[in-house]
Specification:
Number of domains: 1
CATH class: Alpha Beta
CATH topology: TIM Barrel
Distance between the termini: 17 Å
Shape: globular
Strand order of the largest sheet: 1-2-3-4-7-8-9-12
Number of helices: 10
Low-confidence stretches: none
Length: about 260
Amino acid sequence: MKIGMPALVEYNTLNELVSLCQRLKLDFIELNMNLPYNFIENIRPEELRKITKETNIEFTMHMPDDADLGTFYESVREGYVKLFSDTIDWAEEAGVKLLNMHIIEGAKMTLPEKKVYIYEQYSQEFQDNFEKSIKTLSEKAENKDIVLAIENSSNFGRPYIQKALDKSIVHKNVKLTWDTGHDAVSGFIDRQYLLQHDNEIAHMHLHDAVGTKDHQILFEGKLNIAELLKFAESKNIRVLVEVKTEKALEKSIKALHHLMQS
């Protein structure tokens, strides 16, 4: 089991991330394409390979949160597929073996008595678009030995999302990411689907939660962190401690090391 940290919005350079990762004695950094300094055009693949060779720090990549592979707009869908495809090429050169991504639940309309999710209303169109995107990308990624891991975003309980996931994880290198905080915010509904497909879980985003507040410091919320770590260890998957500031990371990792040494 390898423990890692996310790219931080308070930083502006890769060197800052590497320095903190070394200081905390962690195994990997999850770069994040929501942050301009982590855009693939701003990080040379040979630079990552050099860092890994010199420090043993590995890298994963978090795709943009709003990258919607199921969108109804074909030109937009094709644009996102191209972004993923370019990132897969970059990842192969950089030695990055896992790309983390979201599945987008789509727009919703608020009626007087309920909310209507447009992708649910047009579920077949959404599923067809998502499946078409994933099929194209999974074929390319598999040839380059790269995993595409789909993260729960408090939406794995929605039947139309589950149907799209079912059609995706049949591909050998399409896996799941268990985000523990998003799971808690869903009322642990996400967990039901994840545990039904536990052999497909390849990655974990570990953070604590209190009520609807996630990305909290480890052991300061309501989650059973020890139990979650035990699951990750049993599956031998990477664990990203996904708290979003340097201070929160320092505190979380210190508590985590104390647990693992006890």
